[in-house]
Fold this protein.
Amino acid sequence: MNSRKVVFFFPAFSSKEATAPLGILAVATPLLRAGYHVRLIDSTITPNFEQRVLAELEDALCLAVSLVTGPMIRETVQMARKSKALYPDLPIILGGWHPSLLPDQTLAAEFVDIVVQGQGEDAMLEIAQRLSDGASMKGIEGVGYKENGKLVFNPPRKLKSIRNLPPKAYHIADFDAYERVCGRRWGMYTSSLACPYDCSYCTNAGVYGRKWSALEPEQVAEETTDLAQRYNLQLLWIVDDNFLVDTRRALGIAEQLIKRNARFEWSVQASTNLVDKLTVDELKTLRRAGLAQVQQGADSGSRYVLDLMNKRFQQIETIYSAADKLHQAGIRPSFNMIFAYPGEREQDRRESVRMMMDICRKYPGAEFWTNIFTPYPGSPVMEKAFELGIHVPKRFEDWSDFFPRYTVLPWLKGKKHERLQTMREYLRMAFNRVPVSLHRRDRFTRAAHELMAMPARWRLDHDVYALPFEIWLNTAARKVFRPLKPKVDASQLADKAVTC
Ligand code: B12
Ligand code: SF4
């Protein structure tokens, strides 16, 4: 164990919206400060990533992987098995949301040696130091490990406020390669941690316990301006769970950015009730500071379903009013929706579609991204899994099919599933959306989209999805334009004719 090299692997997450993975950049900093060498291999931007990882492992201390529940598990398993076959004694460490929410099952996989629950900055450094010393993992908070074939879990680690976390090691990321895949030069940044709410499908409280902490406006403005300049980024996505928890802080950030004459665009995630707290003038200040888009979990157009989701803090009116105010301020209102939530009735789904159509018509530029309800481990609704008849995977590997683009549920399968997928496809066609990988759409695709929008809107207004010839045509056309890198779950998405 003389090596001081830690190899990080980031498996593909089924999207072209590639950029540097913040989780790895975060845990890399303390290692670098302590004199470790760090390699980051992100499969989305690395041709022959398996060979690259295996070659780097030859003289490495360990392999560390960052992952969330879903398709990322497929490449994690693939990579871990190959690594174990070649280097059976090399420790494999898993961190990120999935190991944090399901540590026991993750550690039980035969190719996993160590799991980290929650924040990994301090834990990963302590692990590396113990590995370097050939010592046991005993007592390292938030860490699970194997001892004589038994799974051992140390006590949990106390959460640190974002103010006490080190800066992320952006310099280890290859932004040129991300730009080649994505078509846009962008990055992510965190200005706050956690969310005070507790939506029943969300895993946030499971890891962060609703303990919100945030950086001061001056620090956010200074760091984001520096990042954008240093790496020549056009866009920064501030990936805070709920950026507007403190609206005064948000306005303070805007004022600081304006003072610094910041030139980049940025987008945030926030709940509609908090967007609605701001006036149009205040939103215009945020716009002047570069805010281009606010992503919001509208989730349903039905009060009944919002109550089931424990979203009592959000009114249907605030979804409209957030769209209206953002539209007036010149900021793109972007919403996520969830279909097939347990208890959702046909009439609720129609209410959601009507709301989406109405908002997109009233506020051109507003966009909706739709998902099928997916029961994530650690979310409050998952406690009712048995009662709901949800099949809960028993092995780490079996979570790889969990993906809101094609989830099949006991109450959503066969023809019902097919119909919802067709409806989602029409929703995608009916109005324009702006993905991060913006300029990959050629003129033909744009013209085809506009041609299909009218019949798609008619279908959605009238709830008619039989003989979806526009989708057949669209699928045939898309086959001509292949993605740059085949994604791990691309075949599944194609089989089910789902694209989102
Ligand atoms: C950005 C983001 C994305 C981006 C990722 C882009 C990219 N290049 O990385 C995109 C848009 C692709 C995305 C997609 C999805 N996402 Co997302 N996403 C996020 C978001 C908002 C921020 C992630 C982030 O970078 N955070 C900042 C870093 C610093 O924090 P972190 O990753 O948690 O890392 C810390 C620890 O986890 C740990 N750690 C992380 N990795 C490692 C590795 C090691 C070795 C160690 C020791 C520790 C460690 O230490 C880090 C520092 O403390 C999170 C919410 C959140 N608050 O994190 C959701 C989140 C991760 N996403 C989620 C979901 C559900 C999705 C989607 C399914 C959404 C959808 N409808 O399609 C897809 C799935 C993608 C896939 N194929 O699997 C869930 C995951 C739940 C789960 N059980 O895994 C989250 C938690 C949101 C939520 N609250 O529910 N997402
Ligand atoms: S508002 Fe968003 S981040 Fe907060 S609990 Fe609800 S879904 Fe999770």
Confidence is low (pLDDT under 50) at residues 484-500. The two ends are 45 Å apart (CA to CA). DSSP finds 20 helices and 15 strands in the chain.
